[in-house]
Amino acid sequence: MPPPKDVVKIAIQMVGAIPQLIDLQQTKPLASVLKDVCDAWSLPNAEHYALQYTDGRQTYITESVRRPPTSPRPHRHRAHPSPLPFSLQNRGEIKNGSILRLTTSPDQEAERLYSGIQSNNSDVKTDSLKKLASLSQDVTFAQEFINRNGLKKIFHIVEEGNDTGEMLAHTLKAFMELMEHDFVSWETLSAAFIKKIVTYVNMNAVDASVQQLSLSILENMVPTSRVLFELVKKEVTLDRLLTHLQVTNAQLQLKAMALLIALLLAATDAERREMMDYLREKNIRQFIHKNIIHSSEPLADEMAHYLYVLQSVSLNLCERRMRTSMDPYSQEQRELLQSLRQTAFESESEAPTGNFSTERRRSLCAKEFRKLGFVNNSNPAEDLRRAPPGLLALDNMVYFSRHTPNAYSRFVLENSSREDKHECPFARSSIQLTLILCEILHVGEPCSETAQAFYPMFFGQDHFFEELFCICIQLVNKTWKEMRATQEDFDKVLQVVREQITRTLSLKPTSLELFKTRVNALNYSEILKLRQTERLHQEETLAVPVLELRERLKPELLELIRQQRLLHLCEGTLFRKISSRRRQDKLWYCRLSPNHKVLHYGDVEEGVNSPPIESLPEKIPVADMKTLLVGKECPHTKEKSSGKQNKDVLELAFSIVYDMEEYCLNFIAPTRYEFCLWTDGLNVLLGKEMTSERTQTDLDVLLSMELKLRLLDLENISIPDTPPPIPKPPSNLNFCYDFSHAEQ
């Protein structure tokens, strides 16, 4: 007879005592359970004790689910948003075989540490602060400590103390952990406390760990209110942040970059533009390109995300011009437009026009604007009324004409000498190309919370967008000539150019010069070859006999993919814990047991790539797994806002529902690739079909390889759509040789 659902068999430990093996009744009040445990060890005052997990984060066992924080949480950018797998630990999650520890209750421990951090003995005070930093991760303890006005004592230690070493580091760490639970608003911090934190950031002779924690505190303050943003922006200058970025300590460098990104995201458009202009003056791009992207150490995921955000913020400075139509009554914009004509036809413009009538001059200007490729040559401003790309297209044309005047003049004059139908219209091409570049580079789109895909060449060049345009507009002219295009082919040419740009960018060139070399090498004939190869591959796979062979091969190859997915789950993946308030450096790892029967997971330290399965304390039997949820169905995505910034989070979220559909283990994959492999693997364990797009991609690749191997002997031989007819059997079989007569 199976044991009752509400009874679990557990072990309880205590230092210096023999462990107890008990049947825990989940319906029995926790106070009664503690009384029975204490009575077994003859311990008085059972109310002074609590049960605690021995593994993982050693969370206190609570009677009910912890209440959610009541204070608002600001939106933050993170590289790998993922929930804390242990954020709602309570007695209902105790499983058979769990090992608990009898320890001092949270209120008693909070009282003891509250007294300890006020001790005059520096050793006692330091030890108390160290223990406080560790226990403050638990929300039950944190609430008890904060209820005793413990944060006020921490503020006092920071504001009045002169220590800049280990004691201060433990104090700041404890403060960060306590604030993480959102019982107290960041806006309640005193001016003296904030000033002290700023001092630690601006000091030179201070422990690196103190500076890292101080930078993290300021990073958390910035998005909470406009007042705190302005205070931090004023007190911590960009020069100081740049100084921290230039240190060799990777963690300090990372925290400085995090604060810089937080300031940029919280700033207004005007402030952001001013900050980016200042950073450009200080050559931050060149420094990042040389000392961070191309450093000897591999680029961390968090730093990759921050570089992506910095790239996105910088490119989004173009959004205002991109969405602004040209004003035909603006003198400044009209002068920019006229400068294009004057630069291209300077020698002609120098001809005496004094004797020309107004109508004659207008006719000459219209003719020159037509040569420039404007559709509405009598009023070229009309061509720039479409937004996007708006004035950004005009800016790009002016930049091209001023910074590469020879290439600009060659483009315009070369096409002016062609037949009307074969000339490549510069202005029309520039307007469409600007729009294509905005779409490829996601100008005007909100920053992703998880993306890490930045272009290294972006940081190697000032005026990146304009310089990229200069290369690509010349590519348009080159491709136009290669295609021998006419005006009717305009859209086809720009489609080829888009393909040339996207294919080259996918190679992640490290500099614009390398991009220029590669994109020019990918000429129209190469594009045709690539398209032909792809088309032939598609055609040969559509023949009826080949389709039949594909269907026969599919089950075997799908099984191969299933085995690969399970093998990936056995190797495991590192997930990053993220609270709703901020990025955290804490990590957790999840992997499948070699016999495919248990999922193991637990906390790991930074730098641990593949922890042994024995070090992962938490377990979920595969037999208890009921279903897999993805995207909006996941409980941890429902808690988040539904804005555009969380779209990428929804695409990476999945949850395992287990144990009679009562509990969930929530994930947000680091990449889309990991999401596909994990959801496929979990579906295999659940006996369901693999549904990710990666499955179809892998299946197509494997089928293609297998078909090519099978059809190798039939190269250059056309395969008929129908099999050849089977000949009729012969009228007699007298031609058969009888071996029995030969033996006689």
Automatic annotation (TrEMBL):
CDD domains: PH_ELMO1_CED-12. The keyword Magnesium does not apply. Residues 65-88 are annotated as: Disordered. Gene3D superfamilies: 6.10.250.810, Leucine-rich Repeat Variant (1.25.10.10), Pleckstrin-homology domain (PH domain)/Phosphotyrosine-binding domain (PTB) (2.30.29.30). SUPFAM superfamilies: ARM repeat, PH domain-like. Residues 332-505 form the ELMO domain. The keyword DNA damage does not apply. It comes from the Eukaryota. One of its GO terms (molecular function) is SH3 domain binding. Keywords: Apoptosis, Phagocytosis, SH3-binding. It holds the Pfam family ELMO_CED12. One of its GO terms (biological process) is apoptotic process. Involved in cytoskeletal rearrangements required for phagocytosis of apoptotic cells and cell motility. Acts in association with DOCK1 and CRK. Was initially proposed to be required in complex with DOCK1 to activate Rac Rho small GTPases. May enhance the guanine nucleotide exchange factor (GEF) activity of DOCK1. This is ELMO3 protein. The gene is Elmo3.
